[in-house]
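Fold this sequence, please.
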Amino acid sequence: GEQALFEALTQLWHDMTTRKMHITGGFGARFVGESFGEAYELPSDRCYCETCASIASMMWNWRMLLATGEPRYADVLERSLYNGFLSGVSLDGRRYFYINPLQSRGGIERAEWYSCACCPPNVMRQIAAVGHYMATANETGVQIHQYASARIEAELKTGQHVVLRVETDYPWDGRVKVTVEETNGAAWQLMLRVPGWCEGASLQVNDRAVEQPSPGGIYAAVERDWQAGDVIELDLPIVPRLTAPNPRIDAIRGSLAIERGPLVYCLEQIDQEPDLDLLDVRIASEASLQAARHKDLLGGVVTIEAQGAGVDIGAWQDELYRSAPVKDLPQREVTLTAVPYYAWANRGPGTMRVWIPQ
């Protein structure tokens, strides 16, 4: 309840998320010292982005959410959870990253253990705690913050016992079905987060549309005399999109990243044409993006194909600098295949990049 402390936390959070956060929800721009850098100092290849830093972000954002009820904190928690944190553990759960760079020129692999082993047990603890971040209850009702198939059991401060069943294939699919299994028939409010990345969300109760604002970054709220068997369906359209960085970020100025729902995507060399070097790829801001589900790839993922270009830098083979202006280099059309960032480096230590030059 100390207002001065809360105001300081709010200011620090704003500085961190608007000037010092990687798109993956990773933190720590400087490899040396594992520290924040200056504002907009966000390199892709030499950042630290320690797995434990993303865990700390999730813990902090959860407490800020509890204190305020503001969905922006749940949004940042989600970004760190699915990207900056989840990339820290291999798909088989046996190898770990301390650092989570957004670009690799090759040779980066997760290790089985570390002499200073804070990340592996921290990862295990955080996975065990994921359910705690899903929902809350107060005197008005139940609030659902993160989406996964689950059973939610709550005692409201009115003394009412409520049980909800959540069914969803999130984050691959944006449809979320919530069934009221137990309630005493009295009125209470159900709140469902519409993520900040989402546009055009819709809500139905018992197959009847409910008027709700469609932009993201809100909670859709329904208050009524709930009955056992009532069904609430939230539809969050999940489509691939291109994201641009703040123009003050020197390291990635003029680049774009691919996202879909809460997931950040990356290019891995193994998925590209054999003779295409990831240092030479380009993408246009109007590039078409096509999503496809692959149940047998990387534990089951949605990939994204984008039309891009490969640049021929042969004329620069033995030169670092030239007098300006320089003629445009020849390009050829290529199809770029992107996979979720969290799943990179599970098929060998090849090259990878999140940000793609335009």
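The longest helix spans residues 51-68. The chain has a mean pLDDT of 95.
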